[in-house]
Queue: 2 jobs
Job 1
Amino acid sequence: MSVKFKPNNNWILLPNPAKRKTDSGIILDDATVNELKTNVLDVLAVGPNCTFVNVGDTVMVDPRGEGVVVEIDDVPHVLVMEHQVFGVMESE
């Protein structure tokens, strides 16, 4: 997925892991949203000062961590700083 956004500094753009509605249209309550959040996400964009993470990497972040939720083209995304990434998943 390509986005028209370039983060500043060492910020990383990720898809929003908190889905409020299922694919079949069921609206989820806050507790369920938090339970279903994943902490393994694909990197959509990186800032110019990121040294460890690249676009397309699959990273693990703290699911309890707070990112900045932003909307780009009416789609919610999350911005986190590079130091909030636990690591990059290695491909098999």
Note: Residues 11-88 form a domain with the 10 Kd Chaperonin, Protein Cpn10; Chain O fold (CATH 2.30.33.40).
Job 2
Amino acid sequence: MLAVENVDRDAFVRLGGATGADLNFEVTRDGAGPLLVACARGDLEFVNLMLSNMTLDIDKTDRNGVNSFFMAAYHGHIKVMRRLMEKGVAMFEKNANGSNVLHIAVKRGNMEVLKELIRIQYPLNEPKVNGITAVGIAAMKGSLEILQMLHENGADINQTSPAGIGPLYLAIKAQQRECVRYLVDEGADLYYSDPIRVDYSPVFVAVKMAQMSSIELMCDAGAKLDGFLDSQGYSPFMFAVKFGLHEVVNYLSLRGCDLNQADPANKTVMMYYLLHTDEILASKPTSVLRLLDMARKLVSRGADINHTSTTSQFG
């Protein structure tokens, strides 16, 4: 190992490192062997010497599940990556956190490694163990250039985890406006109709967070929000009403939402603001005067103060 640490090629060869000496031992606290150390340094000459040793386990990992290809990619050593590929290294392995080399390259913003992985047609939609893909990582980090590169080369912007966590959801949660804009413009799904994912629909995430910029982008894209219902039967507008998200209510009332719609219990918008103010106040403390002011605005925009649901106890 001293020959590797000292970059002493002559000593390495003399000790049999390039022929039959055992190179599959651990030399670091993380369990990395000599090959991983050389790959981390990007020392192609030393890597080639090791690869000529027939006893070398090219796919041996450290305790974090990292192999030689992963290590070379992590440190951005393209030539070492290519040499390892020529020798048939396992390229698709994941580390102990469930990430492959693509996930790590996106996370680290390593464009050269990304370009190399795209060149060799590395799978772009393989998820981490938590269901998040490389596109989701880019969206969450606000890496617009990487997001575009992945999408333009075939990555799926609508792939989600089983629960519904996808790129647009992550961009909204992380308040990455430009990534939200790109995904919406490229046709990312705003709403999931299946019962498992529906509450993680990007439109409901934006409303719950009162993410006005994201809501605006969705409306500008022509989204008909009244047609979306969460697992409890609330539209985005009625959800905002129920939980006292006044800025959202005010904005959506100006973007064509039906101001006379009712919630699953058949309470209309005006019932909330005039008869059930206690529910709004319990959800989000504010003043009664503000609620009355919002009620006046809604009436001026078309809300019918006399409108009742046909099944309402107030009808």
Note: Confidence is low (pLDDT under 50) at residues 311-315.
